[in-house]
Amino acid sequence: MEIVRIFDTTLRDGEQSPGFSMTVAEKIRMARQIESLGADVIEAGFPIASRGDLEGTRAVAREIRSCTVAALARARRDDIDAALARARRDDIDAALDGLSGAAHPRLHTFLATSDLHLHHKLRMTREEALEAISSNVRYARERCAEVEFSAEDASRTDIDYLCEAVGRAVRAGATIINLPDTVGYSVPEEYAAMFQKVIEYLDGAEGITLSAHCHDDLGLGVANSLAAIRAGVRQLELTINGIGERAGNAALEEVAVLLHVRKATIGMTTNIHIDKLYATSRMLTEITGVAVPPNKAVVGANAFAHEAGIHQDGILKNPLTYEIISPEAVGVPKRQLVLGKHSGRNALRAALAELGYEPNAEELDECYRRVVALADESKTVPTRALLTIAHQVFRKHGSHTAVAAE
Predict the structure, then answer these.
(1) Alpha-carbon distance 289 to 301, whole Å?
(2) SS3 category, 3
(3) Among residues 173, 220, 235, which one has the least CA distance to residue 8?
(4) Any residues with CB less than 8 A from the CB of 278 and at least 6 apart, and which?
(5) Residue 354 burial (10 A CB sphere; 0-12, 13-18, 19+)
(6) Rounded distance between C-alpha atoms, residue 236 and residue 228, angstroms
(7) CA atoms of 398 and 402, how far apart (whole Å)
(8) How far apart (Å, rounded) are the C-alpha atoms in residues 351 and 405?
(9) Which of 343, 261, 335 is nearest to 303 (CA)?
């Protein structure tokens, strides 16, 4: 079974989103966890952005030994003026500085290739951009054994020009080519077709790793990532909890579980230890102070919680009826059968049994009526409230429990 390499950019693209900045110590802690999770590449930062980002990249590069550490740098335009040419190299030099202690460094350089970005943002012609790609990638490769080039806004780039830009990067020494859906605009069939065209242009892309980096502006980040690997991509750039610019990036935990659950169909898997996904998600939440939505796939509070009576009954009989993977498999301690107005008697019986009560039919009916009435007022029934209800009902009926109720 083929392995899709996971490039974790939580510490770079993820950290760029509002409210997610991390201190150097927090970056090191998060990097250690991502390394233990099994990521193949950790993008540690964008060193030219700030002194703190440079220090954070340096610290992560020194700390992480078992996987590749990448640093991001802009590919700047070529200029005749020597001073401007020197300034153009500052980004790459800063990234190289940040990677100086890395066991397995990767220089990641990028330049936008869409006409929209070239004209309105960079004020560059297509030919100037091609020259900048060639010279910057070559400069980086002379100083770092592994270079990745990203064509920013690739999904909105003229395909023939994109192929030419990729060709320039490969000839200059890049061995990883990332074609990002920078603004989450693409749909799966378009995104796959773009990669297929580039692979055809590269005559099979022998010795070149194609990479996908998908944003979630239209909610298609994971779907586009799946389309990309089916088209020949073997590296995915993802973040924990899907954090990132605007609506975020494709979520690492969702992709990893998707490829685990459907590996027989897709034929690919990852090196991610999925049993560490929940702990990794919780660590990021603790560091940033930003919780994931309760309905978030895999790591959300409701991902393995069930309130509807029909669902609860199915889960109690066979968890596969409503869970495609067990909570323990992704590191969640256990599923929750939430007591609310939609709950059924079987779930209530199971909850009472956990508290040491074994109700007969009459006691169960009365507990059920009280639980539903309370749930209508307070939405859910917490354990303490259930204990009170059970204690009152069992005392009324003169019953005793195997385990003390209080």
Answers:
(1) 16
(2) strand
(3) 235
(4) 298, 299, 330, 331, 332
(5) exposed
(6) 9
(7) 14
(8) 12
(9) 335
* Residue in this structure with the two tokens 């070559």, named with its chain if needed: 138
**What pLDDT digit, counting tens, does each position of 306-365 carry?**
888 889 889 989 999 999 999 999 999 989 888 888 888 988 999 999 899 999 999 999
Burial 320-344 (b: 16+ CB within 10 A, else e): eebbebebeebbbeebebbbbbbbb
Under 8 Å CB-to-CB from 306, ≥6 apart: which residues? 312, 315, 322, 335, 336, 337, 338, 347
**pLDDT above 50 for 183:** yes
Backbone angles phi, psi at 50, to 5 degrees: -165, 165
Closest by Cα among 305, 283, 356, 402 to 386: 356
In 3D space, the residue among 105, 107, 149, 106 whose CA is nearest the CA of residue 130 turns out to be: 149
- In angstroms, the CA 134 to CA 130 distance is 6
Residue 293 CA to residue 257 CA, distance in Å, equals 18
Confidence of residue 384 (pLDDT cuts 50, 70, 90): confident
Q: Are 350 and 331 in contact (CB under 8 A)?
A: no
Q: What is the pLDDT of residues 81-101, one digit of tens each?
A: 555 556 558 999 999 999 999
